[in-house]
């Protein structure tokens, strides 16, 4: 019998063991009570003990199954493939000898049916079931002492029904495992496609940013320096003006390059200490005479390391939210609350400002801020997160950003 690798297999193995030993013990007790002092009794007892020991050694000797391959822990010395069929053949041979000596042992064939179906390939298992059924029929007719149609037909019918149910259940389980494997493969492929799409989108964004700023600036610098070189000797003042213009363009490009670096790796996170330290640094920088900002971290009993993308996104959301509070809320106090749960991390930004109606259309002029609610939602959406805004006129605002941890890894 193969060693089970899941709860259902362990449960079925335990039931088969219990049924086999109950039938074996019942057959031995029946023989000893009905045939006291029988000369063959010592042989019956010895063979019964041998059969019990062989059945107990089954999981250790026959680790694996030829009927259905399944994953197992790697072994330093793999057992040969023939060990399980050899063990089962030995068990069946001892049982057959017992049936010849005492026909009441024939009912032990029932758990042996399932053992063969679980251990052997389907074709070999069906042959074994047919042989066992024939022995059961012969033993029952021998006990009855005459030809009984019920004893002749009932065991094959029961064996056929049990075999059909077992094979159907196994095929259903195999189809379910194949479906689960396909779903897992599809999920991995979808995740890989999403990562590739995100990478391409980020590359496109950076290429557009670099083309529109750094590349254009470098082109302007080259043209200004070439112009300065052409008029350097004839018009030195004009040449120096070109050089000063080139230096101004270079300074602007340097500021743009620093902005790119900050977008990719926020400076507050680069200092170390994690997201909570970065939020405290942000609160210290944004707080002042007119706005007090506090930070509260609720990690419960665990403080898991957050992925870099999650930390960067939540820090950007906090920056944008505080910018909105400072520019539009008219608040005196803002609180940043970072909550780490088992499956997600939540950042709440609350203020005591005059609030607004989230369902009303935005009235702020376009382009007045670099970060707005749509940008926050887009940033969180890339991580599978959500943004919720709760507010009402005169009651302040609570902005909640939630990111699932498993989806963002």
UniProtKB/TrEMBL annotation:
CDD domains: HATPase_UhpB-NarQ-NarX-like. Residues 314-407 form the Histidine kinase domain. Its cofactor is [4Fe-4S] cluster. It catalyses: ATP + protein L-histidine = ADP + protein N-phospho-L-histidine. The keyword Ribonucleoprotein does not apply. SUPFAM superfamilies: ATPase domain of HSP90 chaperone/DNA topoisomerase II/histidine kinase (SSF55874). InterPro entries: HATPase_C_sf, HATPase_dom, His_kinase_dom, Sensor_HK_TwoCompSys, Sig_transdc_His_kin-like_C, Sig_transdc_His_kin_sub3_dim/P, Sig_transdc_His_kinase_ChrS. The keyword Cytoplasm applies. GO terms for molecular function: 4 iron, 4 sulfur cluster binding; metal ion binding; phosphorelay sensor kinase activity; protein dimerization activity. This is Oxygen sensor histidine kinase NreB. The lineage of its organism: Bacteria, Bacillati, Actinomycetota, Actinomycetes, Kitasatosporales.
